[in-house]
Amino acid sequence: MSAVIPYISKPHPVTGVTNAKFGIWLFLASEVMLFGALFSAYIVLRVGAETWPHGSEYLSVPWAFANTVVLITSSLTMVMSWAALQMNNFAKYKKYMGATVLLSFGFLIIKYIEYSAKFHHGYFPANNTFLAIYFTMTGLHGLHVIGGIIVNSYLLFPGSKMWNTDPERFAGRVECAGLYWHFVDLVWIFLFPVLYLL
Amino acid sequence: MEAHSAEEMQRHVKTYFAVYIALLVLTVATVGVSYLHTTTAMHILAAMVVALVKGSLVAAIFMHLSNEKKIIVYSLVLTVTFFIAIMVIPVLVECEIFRYLDRMVS
């Protein structure tokens, strides 16, 4: 016998939203504080440092700009995959979700090119405070991208079978995965100027 | 979000693409501004204003916050309050009053 979790597809009478959506938002709230702590640490380190390099002295602005475009585009394809389900167009959902996963891999490939260029030049987290906070923040963000790829790939392939058995619940899952993915995009929107442009 | 009619969804889709274009334009703008010769303070101000506008667009439209239930909005107001607090802590560390208090206790 399987336990039934209540209010997965129907809104909870108290909150007005599904438990799934309320749950993902509470998780994202904790994520805001996790990345917030790192941004706070960045300010402390930068204000306390005698010298602070301009991001472009160590980092490649063109690659990061390209990655910003890739991530913003993946956010669009993610919200479009959800919109496709709302319009009962499963084929379109597959296309947009597939594009989201491909773009996420694109982001990681560019990040890999960036990281290996740093290592090639002998730039490691231990070299200075700027590189330490750069690798910490982009590394944690990169882990979030990998997490998103795992969830979105599941929803693209094996998990999409649920569309035939419980479409409402499946659309809810895609919406929650989307909220997480847009958050990952949102973090990058702040990371890009803070680390590369200032 | 509640169930949507087809026309309503078409309208949403148009908004999503408009936001996407706005995000691209703002990304180009933030890189462009960073090449201007001005003070570091002005660079920080410009970069943060653009990032806040971009972030708000993503949160309001892609994450549907502009049309979300009160419980979620209130939870996020609480989160943002604490977020601002941890952003202000590094500034407080630099405040003269805390140096003074520090001297008093030591």
Mean pLDDT of chain A: 96
Q: Spell the H/E element sequence of chain A.
A: HHHHHHH
List unreliable stretches of 5+ residues of chain A. none
The chain-level mean pLDDT of chain B equals: 90
Beta-strand fraction estimate of chain A: under 5%
Q: How do the helices and strands follow one another from N- to C-terminus of chain B?
A: HHHH
- CATH architecture name of chain A: Up-down Bundle
What's the domain count of chain A?
Answer: 1
The helix count of chain A comes to 7
Can you walk through the features of this model?
The complex is a heterodimer of chains A (198) and B (106). By secondary structure, chain A is mainly alpha-helical. Chain A has one domain: Cytochrome c oxidase, subunit III, four-helix bundle (Four Helix Bundle (Hemerythrin (Met), subunit A)), CATH 1.20.120.80. Chain A has helices at residues 19-48, 55-58, 61-86, 90-120, 129-156, 162-165, 167-197. The radius of gyration of chain A is 19 Å and the shape is elongated. The N and C termini of chain A lie far apart (57 Å). The mean pLDDT of chain A is 96. By secondary structure, chain B is mostly helical. Chain B is built from four helices and no strands. The longest helix of chain B has 29 residues, at 6-34. Classes of the chains: A mainly alpha (198), B mainly alpha (106). Chains A and B meet through helix 1, helix 3 and helix 7 of A and helix 1, helix 2 and helix 3 of B.
